[in-house]
């Protein structure tokens, strides 16, 4: 987690620059907006819970979070992973109550952005509005791809596909160093995202590591051969819409 918040919107800016070149003025506006109301949450703490009234849009500044639904018997389905620079539910404030929860996977810092601020920044920087719509549509596209994994991909393909996606999303915002990036997900997190059991995930991760294309362990992901990993996962990056897949 960063020690300062000089540029709290830096990861969102980096992601938007994958779609269009932002101006220095719009970047300053994003950083200013993101610095006004910064909050934090500990690992496992809800940022917002199902049933709460959403009043703001949450921009993840540091750390990882997830969107999830809980069943009455305690089972959890993870619906999305949020990385630094992600906006959690861009238009959720129009709802009366949350129909899902957002929880911190790691300690996180996030900015609580008011709807009025989006209106002001869009009026002042019209091109930025198009980029924000793009960000929202990419989030929807990722959700559709996850549905394909749960419904059609086998276990090895699903875990490899998730590794590819998270690696490329982190690379786009500058959070891959060499071939390595943080990977704080537990095997239970992966299981709850992909509709698998934890023992099945454990066996699948071991099988994936044996390919030599990737080393996936708690805390770190190292992609040694991205081309072969993508082939194994049947990974087509078109659903990420202009995010780098070099």
Protein traits:
11 strands, Jelly Rolls, 8 helices, 246 residues, 2 domains, transcription, four-stranded antiparallel sheet
Which structural class matches the secondary elements? Answer: alpha+beta
Number of domains: 2
Major beta-sheet overview: 4 strands, antiparallel
| Distance between the ends | 26 Å
The name of the CATH topology of the largest domain is: Jelly Rolls
- The CATH superfamily of the largest domain is identified as Jelly Rolls
Organism: Sphingorhabdus lacus
InterPro entries: cNMP-bd_dom (IPR000595), cNMP-bd_dom_sf (IPR018490), HTH_CRP (IPR012318), RmlC-like_jellyroll (IPR014710), WH-like_DNA-bd_sf (IPR036388), WH_DNA-bd_sf (IPR036390)
Pfam families: cNMP_binding, HTH_Crp_2
Keywords: DNA-binding, Transcription, Transcription regulation
Characterization of this structure:
- Keywords: DNA-binding, Transcription, Transcription regulation.
- The strands form three sheets. The chain has a four-stranded antiparallel sheet. A four-stranded antiparallel sheet has the order 2-7-4-5.
- The longest helix is centred in the middle third of the chain and has 26 residues, at 126-151.
- The protein contains eight helices and eleven strands.
- It has helices at 10-16, 24-34, 115-124, 126-151, 155-172, 187-194, 198-210, 226-233, and strands spanning 38-41, 46-48, 57-62, 65-70, 76-82, 87-88, 101-104, 108-113, 180-183, 214-217, 219-223.
- The chain folds into two domains: 10-141, Sandwich (Jelly Rolls), CATH 2.60.120; 153-240, Winged helix-like DNA-binding domain superfamily/Winged helix DNA-binding domain (Arc Repressor Mutant, subunit A, Orthogonal Bundle), CATH 1.10.10.10.
- It has 246 residues and is an alpha+beta fold.
- Helix content is 41%, strand content 21%.
- The protein starts with 9 loop residues before the first helix and ends in a 13-residue tail after the last helix.
């Amino acid at each position: 987690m960063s020690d300062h918040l000089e540029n709290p919107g830096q990861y969102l800016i980096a992601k938007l620059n994958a779609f269009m070149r932002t101006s220095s003025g719009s970047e300053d506006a994003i950083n200013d907006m993101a610095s006004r109301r910064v909050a934090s949450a500990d690992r496992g703490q809800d940022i917002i819970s199902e049933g709460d009234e959403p009043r703001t849009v949450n921009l993840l500044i540091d750390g990882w979070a997830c969107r999830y639904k809980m069943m009455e018997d305690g089972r959890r389905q993870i619906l999305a992973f949020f990385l630094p620079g992600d906006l959690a539910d861009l238009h959720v404030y129009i709802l009366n109550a949350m129909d899902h929860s957002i929880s911190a996977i790691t300690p996180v810092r996030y900015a609580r952005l008011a709807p009025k601020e989006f209106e002001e920044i869009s009026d002042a920087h019209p091109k930025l509005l198009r980029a924000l719509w793009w960000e929202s549509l990419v989030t929807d596209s990722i959700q559709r791809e996850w549905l394909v994994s749960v419904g059609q991909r086998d276990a090895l393909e699903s875990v490899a596909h998730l590794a590819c996606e998270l690696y490329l999303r982190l690379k786009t915002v500058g959070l891959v160093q060499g071939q390595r990036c943080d990977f704080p997900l537990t095997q239970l997190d992966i299981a709850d995202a992909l509709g698998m059991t934890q023992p099945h995930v454990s066996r699948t991760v071991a099988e994936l590591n044996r390919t030599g294309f990737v080393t996936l362990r708690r805390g770190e992901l190292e992609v040694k051969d991205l081309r072969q990993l993508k082939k194994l996962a049947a990974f087509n990056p078109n659903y990420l819409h202009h995010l780098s897949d070099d």
